[in-house]
Design brief:
Number of helices: 1
Strand order of the largest sheet: 6-7-8-11-20-13-14-15-16
Strand content: 35-45%
Structural class: mainly beta
Length: 279
């Protein structure tokens, strides 16, 4: 056997098979599992609870619907079955083919969003988490949400938002809100890398990096160890569909732990290489 065979993850003589299809022996898109016969893996699998991408290797589809029409499911290939879904036709996003470096992205207008069935998978409590995303967003108006596990910004949970001046902030909320300083205006930078994470020492921040060299880290100052056990995780808006940001999401990975520096660097390198960003 040249790869992994697993009843839980699907059986593949030449690679890993998930709901997204056979990911094959080669390419970027699979967890780091060299010890079990997979060569070239780059993404740490421990603690990975969501992994969605616009383009997946192999014959399997990454979405239900698209690329010609709207999509009802953006499949999670983490193995946790936390698929991102939309039951209402008018609120379904679409596939943007060959959006960046030959890879697809998911286009969500301000009226479109996806939400996970699980109401508890992203309840990190007062513990750590780590969220990575490659995305692009056009200019817009008002405070809008890229992703969250809450129905409102003044409800318990976490969120990454776009402000009226096109900067980005991350925030946690439980009885009161704690927000980071704002990033630079990233709306004209093309596809960008962000990392929103909370470390065990109560340090919560957003790190961002764009292909033109615009990069920094903005931290939440104090109090970010709040319990952020909100509700279902959503992409494109708050989890009830309010405050849609308008965005093109190429890939997102969510961990229920804070990755140490070496592992975080692996994820960033993987995403940078895949989307041709040279970060």
């Amino acid at each position: 056997m040249n790869g992994i065979g697993s009843a839980a993850m699907g059986i593949g003589g030449r690679g890993l098979t998930t709901v997204a299809g056979s990911l094959g022996r080669t390419g970027f898109d699979r967890p780091d599992a060299r010890r079990r016969g997979m060569s070239g893996g780059r993404v740490p699998p421990n603690g990975l609870i969501l992994w969605c991408m616009g383009t997946a290797n192999g014959p399997g589809g990454q979405t239900v619907g698209g690329p010609a029409g709207a999509i009802s499911v953006w499949r999670d290939i983490s193995g946790k079955q936390n698929h991102m879904k939309q039951a209402t036709g008018a609120k379904r996003p679409s596939v943007n083919v060959n959006a960046q470096n030959g890879k697809n992205s998911i286009t969500l207008s301000e009226a479109e969003f996806l939400v996970c069935d699980s109401a508890s998978a992203f309840d990190f409590g007062a513990g750590t988490f780590d969220i990575y995303m490659i995305f692009d967003y056009p200019a817009g108006a008002g405070t809008k949400t890229f992703f969250s596990n809450a129905a409102a910004l003044n409800q318990t949970g976490f969120a990454m938002t776009r402000l009226a001046n096109e900067t980005i902030k991350v925030r946690t909320y439980n009885s009161s809100g704690k927000a980071s300083a704002a990033t630079a205006d990233l709306s004209g930078k093309g596809y960008i890398f962000t990392r929103f994470h909370r470390a065990s020492n109560n340090a919560t921040s957003i790190a961002y990096d764009a292909a033109d060299g615009t990069a920094a880290t903005k931290a939440i100052s104090g109090g970010s160890d709040q319990d952020v056990s909100g509700g279902a995780f959503s992409i494109g808006a708050l989890n009830g569909g309010v405050g849609g940001a308008g965005m093109h999401a190429a890939e997102i990975l969510v961990y229920n732990r804070d990755l140490p520096a070496a592992q975080s660097a692996k994820v960033k390198s993987y995403l940078s290489d895949k989307y041709g960003l040279a970060l």
